[in-house]
C-alpha cells in the first residue's frame, strides 16, 4: 500500500501496510539508519524520532498514526544542531547506539523548554536507556546546548605514583 510521509521536510512515497512500524519504513525503505532498533517494545528510546515535534518510539508507532505528521529523524538535524555539537564536546557517546534517540528526546525538550531544570531534563529523558551510563554527560550536554552552566563531573582521582611491580619469582 502506498503512503506519503513527511520526513525531514521532504514528502516521501513509501510502500508499506498502514500497521508497519515507522522504524522499519525509515530504516528499510528510506535508508535512514540513524534511528536504531533497541527493544522493539518502546521501552529503551533508541528508536525515538519526532512527530510534529513530539518524541515518539518509532518501533511501536504504525505509519498510519503519523501519516499526517512532520517526522524528524536524527538525519534531519543535519549534524550541526547545538545538541549534536554539545554531545561531541562532552564526549557523550561511548558505544553510541542510543545516542540518536537520546538526542531526539533532548531536541523535543529544548524546543518546548529552552532553559530546563534538572527535573525537567530527568522527566524528558526518562525512558531513554544508555547501557554505557553516560547520563551525567547527557545532562551536561543538554545544559550546554541550552546555554546553561552545567556542573562539571567530579575529577577522576589519579594516583601519580607508579605502581610497584613485584620481581618475578625464581
Structure in words:
This protein has 170 residues and is an alpha+beta fold. Helix content is 29%, strand content 14%. It is built from 5 helices and 5 strands. Strands 2-1-5-3-4 form a 5-stranded mixed β-sheet, sandwiched between helices. A hairpin with a 2-residue loop joins β3 (48-51) and β4.
Concise structural overview:
By secondary structure, this protein is of the alpha+beta class. The chain is 29% helix and 14% strand.
List keywords for this structure.
170 residues; alpha+beta; five-stranded mixed beta sheet
Helix content: 25-40%
Order of helices and strands: EEHEEEHHHH
Shape: globular
* Alpha-beta classification: alpha+beta
Radius of gyration: 20 Å
Largest sheet composition: 5 strands, mixed
Distance between the termini: 77 Å
Rounded mean pLDDT is 90
Strand order across the biggest sheet?
2-1-5-3-4
Looking at the chains present, what oligomeric state does this protein adopt? single chain
Number of beta strands:
5
Number of helices: 5
Low-confidence stretches: 150-159
- Strand fraction: 5-15%
Helices and strands in order, then pairings?
Layout (H helix, E strand, L loop, with lengths): L1 E6 L2 E6 L6 H8 L18 E4 L2 E4 L12 E3 L9 H8 L9 H14 L5 H8 L9 H11 L25
Parallel strand pairs: 1-5
Antiparallel strand pairs: 1-2, 3-4, 3-5
Helix pairs in contact: 2-5, 3-4
Amino acid at each position: 500500500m502506498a503512503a506519503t510521509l513527511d520526513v525531514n521536510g521532504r514528502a516521501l512515497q513509501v510502500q508499506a501496510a498502514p500497521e508497519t512500524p515507522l522504524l522499519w519504513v525509515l530504516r528499510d525503505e528510506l535508508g535512514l539508519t540513524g534511528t536504531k532498533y533497541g527493544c522493539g517494545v518502546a521501552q529503551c528510546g533508541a528508536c525515538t524520532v519526532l512527530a510534529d515535534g513530539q518524541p515518539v518510539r518509532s518501533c511501536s508507532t504504525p505509519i498510519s498514526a503519523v501519516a499526517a505528521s512532520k517526522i524528524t529523524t536524527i538525519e534531519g538535524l543535519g549534524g550541526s544542531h547545538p545538541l549534536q555539537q554539545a554531545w561531541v564536546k562532552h564526549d557523550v557517546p561511548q558505544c553510541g547506539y542510543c545516542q540518536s534517540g537520546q538526542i531526539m528526546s533532548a531536541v523535543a525538550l529544548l524546543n518546548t523548554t529552552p532553559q530546563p531544570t534538572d527535573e525537567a531534563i530527568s522527566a524528558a529523558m526518562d525512558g531513554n536507556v544508555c547501557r554505557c551510563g553516560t547520563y551525567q554527560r547527557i545532562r551536561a550536554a543538554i545544559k550546554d546546548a541550552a546555554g546553561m552552566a552545567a556542573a562539571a563531573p567530579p575529577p577522576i582521582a589519579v594516583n601519580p605514583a607508579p605502581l610497584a611491580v613485584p620481581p618475578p619469582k625464581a
